[in-house]
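A.,

Following up on our hallway conversation. Structure tokens first:
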């Protein structure tokens, strides 16, 4: 394995920390990309990787993404990410989570964790017994915090509406056809918000029963999980996996707008160029999907209640508008404009 700073995804990360705990089987990486704006905030992923190299690469890439997301969300937080290397059986014990909590504690508050793939609220509660540098914990009514999903859905909903206004000149989602790939926490919440405003929905999920059930409830139709990206719709909203916008999938798009909640939608930076060259309006993923991190970071900082979270979600459309206006003025792609703005905010222009 090459030295960490020789890996292609190393981007002047401030620290990459390796932890192991023999008694519990914990092996984990915490990557701190930047603390320029505050403690490095970002969830922990619990995943079975093919090898350690892949886990380190994931931590490097995801922590950098969090620096950009938090900066663009106006949060006093830097970017970091935890990765726990699960075994093939994905064994996760309270003792292992406690060891991970102690690992976070040893960083003295430079890293603050939250939910990510494979980690739920109960896991964070277990981690929280060993460290206070944890967010996404259960909270009381009216307070910031808890499950980030609903806040992410609301931010994406507001961003989709901004895109509809910008590209189609419509003030409402009523009658607008939105195709959603992945109807889990984020995509499902988005579908409900859009349905309440009268949008026409096409839903797809690898869990076909899940998509069918929601479509029946909300009055939408169902499409195949792969074909959903190429159906004719006013908006394509990726809310499942990353790296789904590729040369091939972009060539097959039949929509004027791509705006969804999934992280890392562009397979490569050039795919942002491909979207732009096709005249498709793109909502940079880490700008539109920041609702969840806004919610849990305010929880951690003890800054504000649910009303403050809602107020900050309302700022997402304006941020997208700024990016789209800059993109139109300079000819630079939406994705590259967002990256440039984020880099300036974290002092790396
Ligand atoms: P989730 O697990 O609740 O839902 C994901 C859904 O996508 C599931 O229903 C799954 O069956 C479906 N799916 C998986 N692969 C698919 C495929 N190839 N085609 C169609 N459907 C597929 O996860 P989530 O929390 O809703 O997150 C969805 C995306 O949003 C992820 O990319 C995540 O990183 C991103 N995100 C989530 C949050 C949050 O607050 N939960 C915040 C920011 C970004």
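Then the amino acids I'd put at each of the 349 positions:
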């Amino acid at each position: 394995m090459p030295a960490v700073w020789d890996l292609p995804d190393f981007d002047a990360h401030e620290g990459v920390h390796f932890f192991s705990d023999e008694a519990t089987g914990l092996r984990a990486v915490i990557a701190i990309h930047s603390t320029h704006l505050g403690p490095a905030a970002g969830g922990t992923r619990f995943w079975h990787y093919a090898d350690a190299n892949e886990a380190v690469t994931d931590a490097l890439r995801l922590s950098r993404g969090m620096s950009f997301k938090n900066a663009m969300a106006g949060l006093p937080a830097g970017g970091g990410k935890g990765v726990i290397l699960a075994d093939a059986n994905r064994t996760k014990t309270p003792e292992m989570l406690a060891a991970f909590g102690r690992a976070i504690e040893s960083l003295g508050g430079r890293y603050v964790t939250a939910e990510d793939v494979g980690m739920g609220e109960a896991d964070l509660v277990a981690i929280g017994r060993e460290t206070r540098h944890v967010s996404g914990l259960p909270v009381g009514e009216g307070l910031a915090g808890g499950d980030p999903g609903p806040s992410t859905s609301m931010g994406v909903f507001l961003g989709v509406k901004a895109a509809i206004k910008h590209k189609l000149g419509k003030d409402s989602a009523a009658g607008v056809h939105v195709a959603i790939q992945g109807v889990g926490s984020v995509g499902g919440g988005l579908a409900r918000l859009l349905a309440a405003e009268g949008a026409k929905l096409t839903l797809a999920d690898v869990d076909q029963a899940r998509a069918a059930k929601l479509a029946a409830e909300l009055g939408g139709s169902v499409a195949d999980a792969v074909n959903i990206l190429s159906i004719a719709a006013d908006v394509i909203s990726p809310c499942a996996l990353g790296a789904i916008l590729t040369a091939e999938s972009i060539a097959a798009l039949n929509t004027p707008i791509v705006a969804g909640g999934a992280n890392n939608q562009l397979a490569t930076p050039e795919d942002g160029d491909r979207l732009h060259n096709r005249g498709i309006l793109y909502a940079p993923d880490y700008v539109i999907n920041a609702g969840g991190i806004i919610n849990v970071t305010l929880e951690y900082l003890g800054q504000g209640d649910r009303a403050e979270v809602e107020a900050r979600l309302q700022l997402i459309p304006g941020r997208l508008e700024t990016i789209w206006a800059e993109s139109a003025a300079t000819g630079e792609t939406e994705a590259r404009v967002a990256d440039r703005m984020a880099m300036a905010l974290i002092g790396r222009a």
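The chain has a mean pLDDT of 97. Curious whether your intuition agrees with the design.

B.
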